[in-house]
């Protein structure tokens, strides 16, 4: 891969998956030179930013302090990634664009190798629907992952693709509760970046670049259920 460009890639993940993410970075950054990793260092600093009501300031500061000069955001999807407020804000900052913000990041998601399916964050699904974001199984090779990251980079360079970005959803102020899975379906990714879900009859329905009616639509943002608090990680 001497001629392969190594894109600076921000890794968004839930800290329950820290050990596997560390291994992923070691394998595909340090050992196989697929990308140059950028990863958030502290939930506490993000927490301080989330308390601000100035969205433009918050998005800019997350990009400056945590995403550095990355051009692609890779969402590492574990069991509870969908519910984490920090993941939602990292995705929002990744997709933020404008005269002051510059270009958004390309966005790609990779499923944990421990899982065959998972619920995805609502903001990610919004942009999978438009074709801007893609969701893949755990990569089988360096070449495969490099292709996925390069495609995400090309999407952020494409003006028409950038116009398809959906980032108007209200940002989570707290983690979502396990009780809030209603209306959210666990899905299995395909090698072409789409994903599938099994229906009650056991058949598998594949989705394309557009959101398929075979996948249960996500509910709108739900207010935090204070009776089902999640401990911060």
Detailed description of the structure:
- This protein is α/β, with parallel strands linked by helices and 233 residues long.
- It is built from seven helices and eight strands, in the order E-H-E-H-H-E-H-E-H-E-H-H-E-E-E.
- It has helices spanning 18-31, 43-50, 55-67, 85-95, 122-129, 142-157, 159-163; strands spanning 8-12, 36-39, 72-77, 106-111, 133-136, 188-189, 195-198, 204-206.
- A five-stranded parallel β-sheet has the order 2-1-3-4-5, sandwiched between helices.
- Helix 4 links the parallel strand 3 and strand 4.
- Helix 3 packs across helix 4 (85-95).
- The model is unreliable at 198-233 (pLDDT under 50).
| Continuous helix count | 7
Specify the overall morphology. Answer: globular
| Strand residues, percent | 5-15%
Widest sheet, order of strands: 2-1-3-4-5
| Uncertain segments | 198-233
Share in helix: 25-40%
What distance lies between the first and last C-alpha atoms, to the nearest angstrom?
37 Å
H/E series: EHEHHEHEHEHHEEE
Sheet bearing the most strands, described? 5 strands, parallel
Q: What structural class do you assign from the helix and strand content?
A: alpha/beta
Total strand count, please? Answer: 8
Overall average residue pLDDT: 79
Cα gyration radius (Å) = 17 Å
Oligomer: single chain
Task: Provide keyphrases for this structure.
233 residues; alpha/beta; five-stranded parallel beta sheet; 8 strands
Brief synopsis:
This protein is an alpha/beta fold. It has helices at residues 18-31, 43-50, 55-67, 85-95, 122-129, 142-157, 159-163; strands at residues 8-12, 36-39, 72-77, 106-111, 133-136, 188-189, 195-198, 204-206.
